[in-house]
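Researcher: Please translate sequence to structure tokens.
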Amino acid sequence: MSIFNVDVGGILGGAGQFAKDVRTAITGKEPISAEKAQELALRAQEIEVGMSKVSQNIIVAEMQQGDRYTKRARPTVVYSGLLFIFLVHVAFPIFAHFTGDAVPDISLPHEFWWAWTGVVAVWMTGRSMEKYGLENKATKMITGK
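Model: Translation complete:
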């Protein structure tokens, strides 16, 4: 028998049996059947679908509630950003000037500018389209209606 005449099926079958024997020795249980594995997979899928439905119901309930702040959080981001800009670029320098202190060397991070300008641009565009009567699914999503 040459080295290339190997019984692959016998080796793989032996390896599979070895793995099964190791699993049985460690857990003390036999492997589950294919039917049981399929049943467990279907049950896991049902649970995932149920969780998706729960998430969907939560989102719908939040949008239907009377709290207008939840629906209108974008203006808060816009006005908070304006406040931060005012503090860093106007209030602190004026305060430092009148107290005789050096102007503090602070600046808003680049991430703030990217995030804030993105929110402002989307909100401004949506509000402008809404004011001109161009309502569609996108503008309703932007303005929270």
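Researcher: Any highlights?
Model: Residues 1-6 have pLDDT under 50 and may be disordered.
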